[in-house]
Amino acid sequence: MAIDHPHRRTRLSALLLVALWSLAESKYIAYNTTQRIVADKLNVHIVAHTHDDVGWLKTVDQYYVGSNNSIQGACVQNVLDSIIPSLLADKNRRFIYVEQAFFQRWWRQQSDEIKNTVKELLSSGQLEFINGGMCMHDEAAVHYIDMIDQTTLGHRFIKQEFGIIPRIGWQIDPFGHSAVQAYLLSAEVGFDALYFFRIDYQDLAKRKDLKSLEVIWRASKSLGLSADIFTGIFPKNYEPPPGGFYFEVNDDSPVIQDDPLLFDYNVQERVDDFVAAALSQANITRANHIMFTMGTDFKYQYANSWFRQLDKFIHYVNKAARQLEFFTERNSSGYTTDSLADALAIAQHHDAVTGTEKQHVANDYAKRLSIGYSEAEKLVGASLACLTEPISRPGCYNMTTKFEQCPLLNISYCPPSEVDLSRGKKLIVLVYNSLGWKRNDIIRIPVISESIVHDSDGNEIESQLLPLADATINLRSHHVKAYLGISPSITPKFWLIFAVSVPPLGFNTYFVSSTKGKGSVASVSTFYSSEESKKSNIEVGKGKLKLLYNVKDGTLTHYLNSRSLVKASMEQTYSYYAGDSGSGSDPQASGAYIFRPNGTFPIKPEKKTPTTIVRGSILDEVHQQINPWIYQVSRVYKDKEHAEVEFTVGPIPVDDEIGKELVTKITTGMATNKTFYTDSNGRDFIKRVRDYRSDWEFQVNQPVAGNYYPVRDYRSDWEFQVNQPVAGNYYPINLGIYMQDDSTEFSVLVDRSVGGSSILDGQIELMLHRRLLYDDGRGVGEALNETVCVDGECAGLTVQGKFYVKIDPLGEGSRWRRTFGQEIYSPLLVAFSKEDGGNWTGSHTANFSAMDPSYSLPDNVALITLQALEDGNVLLRLAHLYEVGEHKDLSAMAYVELKKMFPVRKIGNIIEMNLSANQEKAAVEKKRLKWKTEGSSGVETIARGAPVDPSKLVVELAPMEIRTFMIKFDYITFAKIGDS
Amino acid sequence: MAIDHPHRRTRLSALLLVALWSLAESKYIAYNTTQRIVADKLNVHIVAHTHDDVGWLKTVDQYYVGSNNSIQGACVQNVLDSIIPSLLADKNRRFIYVEQAFFQRWWRQQSDEIKNTVKELLSSGQLEFINGGMCMHDEAAVHYIDMIDQTTLGHRFIKQEFGIIPRIGWQIDPFGHSAVQAYLLSAEVGFDALYFFRIDYQDLAKRKDLKSLEVIWRASKSLGLSADIFTGIFPKNYEPPPGGFYFEVNDDSPVIQDDPLLFDYNVQERVDDFVAAALSQANITRANHIMFTMGTDFKYQYANSWFRQLDKFIHYVNKAARQLEFFTERNSSGYTTDSLADALAIAQHHDAVTGTEKQHVANDYAKRLSIGYSEAEKLVGASLACLTEPISRPGCYNMTTKFEQCPLLNISYCPPSEVDLSRGKKLIVLVYNSLGWKRNDIIRIPVISESIVHDSDGNEIESQLLPLADATINLRSHHVKAYLGISPSITPKFWLIFAVSVPPLGFNTYFVSSTKGKGSVASVSTFYSSEESKKSNIEVGKGKLKLLYNVKDGTLTHYLNSRSLVKASMEQTYSYYAGDSGSGSDPQASGAYIFRPNGTFPIKPEKKTPTTIVRGSILDEVHQQINPWIYQVSRVYKDKEHAEVEFTVGPIPVDDEIGKELVTKITTGMATNKTFYTDSNGRDFIKRVRDYRSDWEFQVNQPVAGNYYPVRDYRSDWEFQVNQPVAGNYYPINLGIYMQDDSTEFSVLVDRSVGGSSILDGQIELMLHRRLLYDDGRGVGEALNETVCVDGECAGLTVQGKFYVKIDPLGEGSRWRRTFGQEIYSPLLVAFSKEDGGNWTGSHTANFSAMDPSYSLPDNVALITLQALEDGNVLLRLAHLYEVGEHKDLSAMAYVELKKMFPVRKIGNIIEMNLSANQEKAAVEKKRLKWKTEGSSGVETIARGAPVDPSKLVVELAPMEIRTFMIKFDYITFAKIGDS
């Protein structure tokens, strides 16, 4: 909840953000894995190996090619294929290979090129043959002549093909060991040593105790010391030491995460694990050398997955403590280049914003956004300071002004504004507008005492003090604790509410000071639902819009606009859908992916809870505790013609073991004929017909040969069968939903993505919150049951959001939807500073617009991107906000005068780009594929803005057109461009 | 059973085997994966891709580094790391990558070298960025400006870093698709096409029906056709088509096995699968182009595992049927270079010969041995023919003689000898001896009528006809059917038994002809166990050895040797151990790895079954049906002083749901003081003390610093605790087991590896067969319950084997154990041909020795290897067979005169090698590490043979010494060297 939904963010235009996006510095780490022996230290010999049984659960050929993996996942071809590039990648990497039966199969399939590479790797010792027989023979059930023969077969091949002689016996898996193996198949073969595992458990215990796992094995009475062989017995097995050192593809062991730009950096922990494992083994060896057998049966199928980790262990364990400290201090240093842009980009992923991720992943997204927000906040603060600082500080060095923001303002937590202004101190409130038109809006900030507001000219402006409701205070303290881990020491007393006016692409500054008894505190009246109330309706709203509420039960009854003369009956109620558990007749549970209701249950307002009406000079509010877990504030502003509803929902109770999906329904008397409209990603509005699906027109009888493609367009429908009367008619809502009758259109805009529909004519519903108890079986493996924990106590998630309601005369709704919709998406940015005693306005820029003071973007155009790129170019993206035919005036061609948009800069060069700005528009047009389509003549008049004339620099925008430009200014210095 | 145990094979010396071992011809296949479009055919576009969610079940960074794999096995770093070498390996390989959030993380960690490589791959189009935003954004819950921003962030990076512009929209996983995505984020971005999956199921069904999965999507009312976008909707999902086309590491899909040298070649089947999948998809597209999306979530962690298969599909599907036929006919062509040597080498693996493999793997080993045997048999046949052919056929071309062998001779199946010899035809029996000393032995072959035998001089030699027992005939017909799939049409009537005498490293030839009434048919007498029998003992054996049997119950009672005057009581009985089920108080089941008996149960011979005594001129036999599933033949040869016991055991009944492990126990009255001896891999005999373990002597109190290593030698013991009184005293027996008392030693030799022990003083036991019903939990996951199936009816496995029993005066046993032990390991090779009417001996070489006629290897030396290598060298390995002190005379230094061993060849060069012949012995000695050992003075007199004087060419062999030589003959032609 504290982290706003991704799209609720301040658009950071070029004026503030010079280079938010930048490629992080190259983080290639050349791991130092040089081999070395240090006399007085414990030396760990890392032996990278695979143990490839020449037949066991699968046949030798099945193991080789990797068939029959259902029995055992194992493919020796993978091992041998992958080891080559892994060794080539770093000359310090070494690997031993044992079973020649597999190697020979592989060898004969290789190209000369690979063969030469292998020869080089063998020659350099990076690849080494150990044991070297065709298999790792048994030592109990085999005759010595067969042992000799199979070893000779392997050894001769290795000698002839590579001129190499294996030096080490390696009998790590046979189920016991014979004297003949030691003196004959090891010493007489000429091995330097024999290593084995599998030994009687009592023998092993005693040898560990006596540090006798390494012995000279004198196995022949007849040949005596002439056939001695150094023998090493592994202390536990032939696997990596305990402590999580398995690195096969998909293995569970913690990998070394040593990239400080990523989360979960863990070098110190893993180094500690490694050292602990080494010390544990050191206790049972005589010398200061121990071996880590890094591998086991059929491992290294992707050798790189092991070497990547082994390299890191060697590299980091060999460093001095000092370097490790550097790395572990990274968290406290706060250094990161993950930006808000990155975080936002990632959050657009189809398992992120949708909620189909696991909870810990959702937390990770929130963390990224929070970090990104925090990074951006610093940058914004610095940029604002730079823009307001005196001209005498060129380059924005040594700025004295600091601006802070309040990301938790939505829950009334804002330390910069919750300050004592008693001794003449003033709070500076800078309000920035990233849109290309002038905006008037209402700001609300929490204050601790009665306050008044002045503009930068020193005039007091209208303000309203609104006592903080208990519900708000509870929410605030609970969630500040939950998200920040602190308990706020101060509780603000009022919301200070005031109107601001901000120029396009610019800011204005306001000054808050304390006052005793002079503040305009709103009146608060509370009534309880009562059958006996005298007056049947209460009117709320001081301006043109009025809402009527029924005194009897506190419900909304009518929507009235005295200017447009719209008068409509309007009810608003809450209901929940019981989430299907999937265990009844319908096996499909409702969950993260699937909305599968099992019944609708209206929520009746509880009679004992009061309705509180707050009336003030700027706005009226209606506070309603619908039930213990739904709190709603409806707002009617004196100068706005839409109503705003702020809902706080949660924790949704699930004591009855039923998941619930909460909706609000707004019901009018409109005859909407199954039809409603929802936005497509906040852009187009798409017509929706209940129980029908708008789709394409089939020309079923025409030939279907490859020359003509069917067209799927926005117009035509085909009938389909609705099996889920509610879920089947639900649509995503990012911007809004509306419906029409003969004379009016009823629009609801949202501040976040929700689901919505019109299940009944004249009614719009929005799904505001979901809490479900069953996984819906589509992969996430968790129920959508989000909780927030404070001091170890967890409760279901509470969400707070807003929607906006307006009824217009038919044909007039689009202007509000488009203009206000854009403003919802790009809210004013509010930053705080303190006046440091002197005359702030005298030494700072208090209001500013990047655009010509006389200029504003047309009503039907939004500035959606203005971003300085690191190469000095500026990316400009302008969007026409209206579709063809959407509005009688505003659906026309729009014109943007760039010279007025950038009055103090000279555009040296302007190139129109494709949407994602990675190629010139002209190039796209040139190579655009022309498709023959069924039933289309190819002749259609489509409006598009003409190319920009570099001398005029006027951008034409046709309906729904978005145009992207790369602009090179002749000189570009955003630091100081003077007041507007 | 038909496949003999690995070590039961004929040693194939250089005389017969010129180049059994050879490296298979290079089988590198350059796959032709060139891209091409064929107009009139269905073109399948293989799109190798991975779908990497930017957070879902794991966080974005967890997915990147591959942590938290317990939640989901996924590591994008693996994907991006592994794709590089995979693409470099073949320029026809192509890969698309989508999510820039991951790519950017990876990119900044790369070295300049990798970066340059990636740039080249991008430039060539092998690697292609698709979609190109930071993530594959959602299309329902996101605002269009956020979609633009995140796409721009990715596209700008790609443009700046690589100068590249993504061409394709790829929204394959979002849960629905918006008009804005189509016209704005695809067409306006400049994409050529948009591909997506996830679409309403009714919509999908209709589109498939109407072939409208590919459409021109006109999504903007305002921009009309100017924002058309070609849109492809996947027909099923974004995964590979159905039919097993997943090739991630450890995936189950059948890989294309196209190496004809390996088993399970399946190119045709997999090509068929691919074509079927393509045709299925073709039915729902308009043009003759379809796309296979080869990949899915987080795949290509080891990219090569996919490309290896994709390459093969492209290669083989693009070929003409003709080539495929070639490959599929491979099985019938019988072509393979897998040799017996390879198969034997593989069978030495510690999960092969041990029986710890799964049953299907055991079958694979058997198949390999069978093929190897068959290959070797052909080679042996040809070599023998060459050696016997007239000198007039130089180079062994156009040989008229054919020699066959009988691998199933052990179950009396030998078609070459089961022939009608009635009309003067003669069966030629060639007997080859691969050892270096002359051998006299008894041969037995099945014949269909009374027959006699002549030697090559035309003299009739002693023979004996032995009627085939019913048990033998039943076993024969059942197992010929089981292993060869045929029912023998002829049933032989007799075993023809005759004595042969074969020179060292040579052969002799015998001629079998038919005779009526003149054959020496053995007498057969049968008696039933009876309390009333008059005579208490029956004596068996015509020579120095006699066995006495008790008439009352048919049991063996005494062993008598009239030469050595050994007279010993001897009983032989059968018992079984009940296999622990692991479900009682002991959780450990008896199984493949673990012998865990749960009680011993003696098997009492059933009284109703008869004992049959067969007496003949060469040997006597005692046939005993011990119980319905144990049949035993004891043999006493006139000219041998050991008894031979042939056991046929099985199917072991398990109707009582108890697994059984069958042992035979031979009990004498010897006072053996817990001590017995077992061989180590058929080489040394190791002293075993019951309930003790012979091990090393600890010098516990001496310093354990790294300078001195403890010695583990053959001498000393330390006490250990026996928790399993039977299993804990079991040892592997490959050659034999013996025990001693004050005056005698009792030896048992075996023809295969078995387990054995002496659980009671004076008693030796051998485990002959095991049938168990529970997996013992050590990995194989199957109970050791082997079955043989005939016509769909399966029964427990029947095994047939032999052991040999001898009692010698103390100090004399080793000679028999060593000499006869070597003969058991290297039995005479018997090959058959037919006399083609003429005088065969006149035109062929009938007897031959490679050695000087006057020469034989010393009794204490065995020739264990004589092998011609492909480089013209000959590998010679000689083994001293006795340990120090093992025999009063034979433990002395032995001398081998190479000049007499190779009388007609001149040794040009002789180099002593290490045991596995991959380096010179001198080099081994030079680099041999010298270890300081605890408690050893380092002065010890060890006998070793001196270096070979090239002028004398006498090889000295000290006790237990094996010496390996590489010999270069001045001229080497094995083809024809004249008669001996």
Name of the CATH homologous superfamily of the domain at 527-694 and 724-810 in chain A? Golgi alpha-mannosidase II, domain 4
Hey, roughly how much beta strand do the residues of chain A contain?
25-35%
Low-confidence stretches of chain A: 1-26, 321-338, 696-707, 972-980
Tally the beta strands of chain A.
47
Report how far the terminal alpha carbons of chain A are from each other. Answer: 38 Å
CATH first level of the domain at 527-694 and 724-810 in chain A: Mainly Beta
Number of helices of chain A: 18
Structural class call of chain A reads alpha+beta
What name does the CATH topology of the domain at 527-694 and 724-810 in chain A carry?
Beta-galactosidase, Chain A, domain 5
Helix content of chain A: 10-25%
If you compute it from the alpha carbons, what radius of gyration of chain A comes out, rounded to the nearest whole angstrom?
37 Å
**Largest two-chain interface:** A-B, 221 and 222 residues
Oligomer: homodimer
Mean pLDDT score of chain A, rounded?
Answer: 85
**Per CATH, which architecture of the domain at 527-694 and 724-810 in chain A?**
Distorted Sandwich
Overall geometry of chain A comes to elongated
Biggest sheet architecture of chain A = 10 strands, antiparallel
Order of adjacent strands in the largest pleated sheet of chain A = 16-22-23-24-25-39-34-33-27-28
